[in-house]
Amino acid sequence: MAYLKAANISKSFGGVHAVQNVSIEVPENSIFALIGPNGAGKSTLLNLLSGIYQPDAGQLVFQEQNLIGLPAYRRARLGLARTFQKIRLFRQLTLLENVRAGFHIHQSEPFWKHLALGSVGRFDAEARELLDFVGLGSRANERAGALPYGKQRLLEIARALATRPRLFMLDEPAAGLNASEVDFLLDRLTEIGRRGITVVVVEHNMDLVMNVAHRVFVMDHGEALFEGTPREVQDNPRVIEAYLGGEFAA
Amino acid sequence: MSARTVGFVIAVLVVGALPWLLQAPYWRGILVLCAMNVLLAISLNLVLGYTGQLNLGQSAFFAIGAYVSTILVKTYAWNFWAASLAAVAAAGLLGLALAAFAVRLRGHYLAIASLGFAVITYQVLVNWEKVTEGVRGIYGVLPPVGSMVGLFYLVAGIALAVYVLIDNLVRSPVGDTLRAIREDEVSAASLGINGALWKAFAFGLGAAIAGLAGCFYPGFVGTLVPDAFNIIESFTMMAMVIVGGMGTMIGPVIGAIVLTFLPELLRDFGEFRLMVYGLALTLVVLFMPGGIVQAWRTLAGRQWHT
Fold it and tell me: Does any domain span residue B121?
């Protein structure tokens, strides 16, 4: 039984068919990679799954719950979290405040306590743990916008994890990272998967995809091209032709 | 004692001493005005500074507080405090109603919608003569306490209490949520934050506080005319917030104090004193966008903190 299921979903912008009739089934506790050339529709698909866009047609189901029509914030409450291809941090806030904001849906203190007491129920300790998890614990009071690019991507991951997701979508988390940062990211993604969070990752970095993904879904021109294990994807002639070129042909 | 407690004690002492340092009736009046402006600046800062909504219509809620409380007292013989409670509720609910329509709007569009609301409110005050007396005004409005010193202590005490409550709120998880919306509404939504709901909350709470300030204005002046709630008032509030330093708690308070007293010190220059607002706003936006608070922090070499 698929954990997250999209059936025949389509999305057009003006005359451009960004996603056309795509169906995916993400199994629970897997790391699921979406790959494809630029403009293949991967990010659009992620935006459809997370609720930034609503599809023109098709079905979306997460844990037997229909997602169509639900805005992004409602989907986050069902356990869907995400990061963004173009980093969207709360730039003027500190690292700690960024992650703390991620605990919003777990707040249970009554409103009068916030007015009367201020800092109750702020999840400071949990937020620091998540900063430690991505290696940013020592910089908790720095401003997010002042972080180097690679660290900003890690902070977005910590912030999204604060929602305690069941399914975590990452849009090109390795973009702009250097080799050692990619290694660290790979390690963290594996650890996130090990903690029972299902991961959907859009990625161009083939090392990362081949190393962490259980299933790989290939898109081209807004349509599904192929789906299989990393090995099957590497060996598939259509994928090699459309995307990988000669790099993996040998 | 924490730094907050020390600050609170100092504020109480300063408020207590001020009427005795400035004994001339004229200056005691300015003190009351200043306390009202502090309340207004706090109310607008919650919306503009913490939630990032460009609200140009705050003068409307100030007006609603003033008119609803005064009409209930003068026409329906309500007790001042009951009338004030109703006035605050009316301002807050109208703020929520406007926000319900406006939360989908951002930036320029919200600014235009809120400005439009202030224009409409002003026109209602001028033209709905049966209730508001129009431009003739309502005369002989009494303050809730007899002496100017008493009125100052009352309004300043309320301003101090509101400051403490809102300071608590912005330190709480609610504050994190509002700032998150200000910084990036799309990623706030990805964390499960209902942006429309929280923006309406901030807008409504800000409107209620502006309405609370409005309850004390007519008794202070003695008369109530629509011109006191001209659109210009919205801009003076904005100038206080921005000059002081929006998105900080103390900044708008400093802005309100500076922009209440500075024009008074320049009274000899006649109407030109109003230019102080425009000049202060222009200089701050050009040379220190974070306002007085940021300039001070830069000088003191302190680390950035919101």
Answer: yes
Is residue B270, in this structure, part of any structural domain at all?
no
Token representation of residue B98: 């406007």
pLDDT tens track for A94-150: 999 999 999 999 998 888 888 888 877 789 999 999 999 999 999 999 999 999 999
Q: Residue B99 domain-assigned?
A: yes
- Whether residues A72 and B189 touch (CB distance < 8 A) is answered with yes
Among the partner-chain residues B168, B192, B304, the one whose CB lies closest to the CB of A76 is B192
Per-10-residue mean pLDDT, chain A, length 250: 88 92 94 90 94 95 94 96 96 96 92 84 92 96 95 97 97 92 94 95 88 93 91 86 57
Task: Determine whether domain A1-79+167-175+197-250 maps to CATH 2.130.10.10.
Answer: no
Q: How far does the CA of residue B218 sit from the closest CA of chain A (Å)?
A: 29
pLDDT(B305) > 70: no
| Record: contact A94-B191, CB cut-off 8 A | no
State which amino acid sits at residue A142: E
What pLDDT score does A171 carry? 96
Nearest to B191 among A52, A104, A118 (CB): A104
Question: Helix (H, G, I), strand (E, B), or coil: what is residue B263?
Answer: helix
Question: What span, in angstroms and rounded, lies between the C-alpha atoms of A39 and A128?
Answer: 37
- The domain limits of chain A are 1-79+167-175+197-250, 86-164
pTM here is 0.92
Mean pLDDT of B65-85: 94
What are the C-alpha distances in Å from A208 to residues A46, A163, A238, B182?
A: 18, 25, 21, 34
User: What residues make up the domain containing B187?
Assistant: 3-227
What pLDDT shows up at residue A108?
86
| Contact at CB, B176 and A104, closer than 8 angstroms | yes
* Closest alpha carbon within chain A to B4: A118
Structural domain total, chain B: 1
Smallest Cα distance from B26 to chain A, Å: 36
Say what the pLDDT of residue B100 is.
84
CA distance A29 to A130: 20
Separation between Cα atoms, residue A19 and residue A8, nearest integer Å: 10
Phi, psi for residue A234 in degrees, rounded to 5: -60, -35
Contact flag B189-A121 (C-beta cutoff 8 Å):
no
Instruction: Residue window 84-143, chain A: list those with CB within 8 Å of chain B.
Output: 84, 88-94, 97, 100-105, 107, 109, 111, 113-123, 141, 143
Confidence of residue B298 (pLDDT cuts 50, 70, 90): confident
Complex-level ipTM: 0.93
* Contact present, A186 and A31 (Cβ < 8 Å): no
